[in-house]
Write a structure and sequence with these properties.
about 80% helix, mainly alpha, 9 helices, about 200 residues
Length: about 200
């Protein structure tokens, strides 16, 4: 089932980039960074393959990927800043998020937001959703965009370079990254279970 979904997504990604070129990379990476799980692990390696054929430039491919990430992240950031926080303040108790948790998130992004965004942009799964909590915490937008760009450029350029080196075998990356994504998903699930258990214990007290 998952392989079929990935195949469909790969077809969409290949068609978009083939038609729109660098603009297609910007569009697809913007979608991925707007909390829509469109895999950059397919977008950028395929773009790298096009570099190996001489149809694209590696540095411009990395730049297009980073610009797309920033644009999509701004959308997710403002969704968190404008709608996310009021929603959580009103209904957060039903999903075990308290005002105390929001305060902790605010302080975290104030103190460690730069490195959190930078590292988050280098991690599968997390990179797709990191902008929303940054918006909820209302992290400084200029710093948010800066570290989003830097982290995303490294990520995009690295994947494109691997795709370029693999040439026509760029799609083999998807198998390995899918396994890594699954590992990240398990870690996140464990964190959610711990979080829910902690809150239930506080409620009993």
């Amino acid at each position: 089932m998952i392989e079929k979904i990935i195949t469909v997504l790969a077809g969409f990604i290949i068609g978009t980039i083939s038609r729109l070129g660098y603009g297609g990379i910007v569009l697809l990476m913007a979608i991925e960074s707007a909390c829509i799980p469109l895999p950059s692990e397919i977008i950028m390696p395929f773009s790298g393959y096009l570099v190996s054929t001489g149809d694209m430039d590696l540095w411009l491919v990395g730049l297009a990927g980073a610009v797309g990430c920033v644009l999509g992240s701004i959308v997710a950031y403002y969704a968190g800043a404008w709608g996310g926080r009021p929603f959580i303040e009103k209904y957060g108790k039903y999903i075990l998020i308290s005002h105390h948790d929001l305060d902790l998130a605010d302080r975290w992004f104030q103190r460690h937001g730069d490195i959190t965004i930078f590292i988050g942009r280098l991690l599968p799964v997390i990179r797709t959703f990191i902008a929303f909590p940054a918006g909820v915490a209302r992290m400084n937008l200029w710093r948010f965009n800066l570290y989003t760009f830097v982290g995303s450029y490294i990520w995009s350029l690295g994947l494109a370079w691997i795709g370029m080196k693999l040439g026509e075998h760029w799609n083999t990356l998807g198998v390995y990254f899918h396994r890594f994504d699954a590992a990240i998903g398990v870690i996140l699930l464990i964190a959610v279970v711990w979080y829910v258990r902690r809150h239930l214990q506080h409620m009993k007290r």
